[in-house]
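for the recovery benchmark. tokens below, seq after
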């Protein structure tokens, strides 16, 4: 994979993870499970938040690796 492809895929992954986290957080915030609703209604969005966190962390690791590769290439060229 090209370095620029890795960078763009990492950024897309971060954006998707953050967007999905916003959706799951809104579901949790709007749930009426705090009063009389079913607490099981919160399970899916809470698990979703954890998955979103993992996606953002993995995409960030890809971004850091690509950055490190670019830095190594510049060091070699210098």
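predicted aa per position
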């Amino acid at each position: 994979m090209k370095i620029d492809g890795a960078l763009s895929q990492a950024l897309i992954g971060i954006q998707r993870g953050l967007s999905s986290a916003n959706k799951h957080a809104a579901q949790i915030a709007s749930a009426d499970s705090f009063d009389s609703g079913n607490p099981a209604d919160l399970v899916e969005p809470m698990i979703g938040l954890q998955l979103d966190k993992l996606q953002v962390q993995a995409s960030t690791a890809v971004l850091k690796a690509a950055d490190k590769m670019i830095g190594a290439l510049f060091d070699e060229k210098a």
